[in-house]
Specification:
The protein has 129 residues and is an alpha+beta fold. The chain has 3 helices and 8 strands; from the N terminus they run βαββββαβαββ. The protein starts with a strand and ends with a strand.
């Protein structure tokens, strides 16, 4: 089965050995995605703004793989402060209110940069005809 690798262009992909997303068959897995835009953080101090930006990045990766947000069947959100869950939930709901993928949100002790407040992964299944 063909394996399509989608890159974000980050130099860390080669160093660490990962892809922004991978499509195998009709399944697309999008790796943990943060609100970094190159060396710049989008939404400093705001879980809501970081989440909104992350979903924009995820949407681009899905499109490159031939999928869309409507194909997402699973989301996983890793927040550094669970008391801010409503901010992440509001942004998630703005994207997925009609789609309603299975979703998990957990608190983690830290992400790779202390300014990052949330990291998100998704799984999408592209309908076959």
């Amino acid at each position: 089965m063909h394996r399509q690798l989608i890159s974000s262009g980050s130099p860390w992909e080669d160093v660490v050995g990962y892809s922004r997303a991978v499509r195998v068959g009709n399944v697309v897995e999008v790796a943990g995605t943060t609100a970094m835009d190159g060396d710049k953080l989008v939404g400093l101090g705001s879980v809501y703004l970081q989440t909104k930006y992350i979903f924009q990045k995820i949407e681009k990766a899905l499109a490159e793989a031939g999928a869309s947000l409507s194909d997402v069947v699973r989301t996983r959100m890793f927040v550094t402060d669970i008391s801010k869950w409503e901010e992440a939930g509001r942004a998630h709901g703005e994207v997925f209110a009609a789609i309603k993928p299975a979703s998990t949100m957990v608190e983690v002790s830290a992400l790779i940069d202390e300014r990052l407040l949330i990291e998100i992964e998704v799984t999408a299944v592209i309908p076959t005809v």
